[in-house]
Design brief:
By secondary structure, this protein is an alpha/beta fold. It contains 8 helices and 7 strands, in the order E-H-E-H-E-H-E-H-E-H-H-E-H-H-E. The chain has a 7-stranded parallel β-sheet, sandwiched between helices.
């Protein structure tokens, strides 16, 4: 039975990933920032352990990892999105996006290293976005952070491979989560029609891809698109 830590596990893709791993019999812990009620519901449903910690806060992350008995798989899923013209985005919002989406991965990977290096084994899965691959209009800051996650993942795969640690990335497309709550239904319909398979994704679709790539022993340094063919 592997021990898995998932960041941003109280809702959306993170919650689906908690359910995926817990349902497969793994020992699951997850981090969340402020959705206490949702985190409690996921924990009660799955038996996973919820830990309140902002991944942008290095000390909070370190304290959270001290609660783990062991670690085999780390899923860096926590992320935020702020849409709008780059010229209208405040410096504070720009910094917050990078603090959560990029520095959060940095904090969690570093906190996981003692577990992985001690056993010379481990699996890290980061969550980027198709906009990190191709860029999205009015998503400049978000795209930049998710592009950074892809570059970090590839570089880490090279750096950590000799220590028996695999690093891979999933890049979701249009997934029907809370991040889509402010998108007009007609826009979502247009996006659905742009997909070759004519559908938008569900959190469970991404969770299944995360579980696969986390446990694929001969796969590292890869970016797995989960976007219905929207980006090929």
């Amino acid at each position: 039975m592997s021990t898995v830590l998932i960041t941003g596990g109280s809702r959306g893709i993170g919650a689906a990933t908690v359910r995926q791993f817990a349902g497969a019999g793994h020992r699951v812990y997850f981090l969340y920032e402020k959705e206490h009620k949702a985190a409690a519901q996921v924990a009660a449903e799955t038996g996973a352990v919820a830990i309140c910690a902002d991944v942008a806060d290095r000390e909070a992350v370190s304290n959270a990892f001290r609660r783990l008995p062991d670690l085999d798989i780390l899923v860096c899923n926590a992320g935020i999105s702020i849409a709008g013209l780059m010229s209208m985005l405040s410096p504070e919002d720009w910094d917050r996006l990078f603090d959560v989406n990029v520095k959060g991965v940095y904090h969690c990977v570093n906190a996981a290293m003692p577990f992985f290096l001690a056993k010379q084994a481990g699996s890290i899965v980061t969550v980027s976005s198709m906009w990190g691959q191709v860029g999205g209009s009015c998503e400049v800051a978000y795209s930049a952070t998710k592009g950074a996650v892809i570059a970090m993942s590839k570089a880490l795969a090279k750096e950590l491979g000799p220590s028996g640690i695999r690093v891979n990335c999933v890049a979701p497309g249009v997934i029907l989560t809370d991040m889509c709550a402010d998108i007009e239904p007609e826009i979502l319909e247009e996006l659905r029609q742009e997909s070759p398979i004519g559908m938008n994704g569900r959190p469970e679709d991404v969770a299944a891809a995360i579980a696969y790539i986390a446990n694929a022993p001969f796969v590292t340094g890869q970016v797995l698109g989960v976007n219905g063919g929207f980006v090929i």
